[in-house]
Amino acid sequence: MKAVLKDGTEIECDKFDKVSDGTYLYKNEDQIGFIPLGELRAVAPDAYEPKNDRSKVVRRGGKSEDKKIDGT
């Protein structure tokens, strides 16, 4: 799983513990980080892809194009 921060940063972890002032992240039973309350967007499975990912393939008229959403 991974923790996804509001700024888009992703941190791999395999366990988390939510407390009153934030969330502790763990990997292999070792604490690897602390995310303050309000900075964490989600703790999600590895398959999670944020909605603002601009590398998606755009489909127009049934055609698949290798073009980024922002036009580049």
Secondary structure tally, helices:
0
Low-pLDDT stretches: 54-59, 63-72
Q: Strands of the largest sheet, in order across it? A: 2-1-6
Structural class, by secondary structure, is mainly beta
* N-to-C series of helices and strands: EEEEEEEE
Radius of gyration: 16 Å
Mean pLDDT reading = 78
What's this entry about, in short?
This protein is mainly beta and about 70 residues long.
Chain-wise SSE layout:
Blueprint (H helix, E strand, L loop, with lengths): L1 E4 L4 E3 L2 E5 L2 E6 L2 E7 L3 E5 L13 E3 L2 E3 L7
Antiparallel strand pairs: 1-2, 1-6, 3-4, 4-5, 7-8
Question: What would you note in describing this structure?
Answer:
This protein has 72 residues and is mostly beta strands. It has a domain at 1-46. 0% of the residues lie in helices and 50% in strands. The chain is built from no helices and eight strands. It has strands at residues 2-5, 10-12, 15-19, 22-27, 30-36, 40-44, 58-60, 63-65. The strands form three sheets. The protein has a three-stranded antiparallel β-sheet, with no helix packed on it. The radius of gyration is 16 Å and the shape is globular. The model is unreliable at 54-59 and 63-72 (pLDDT under 50).
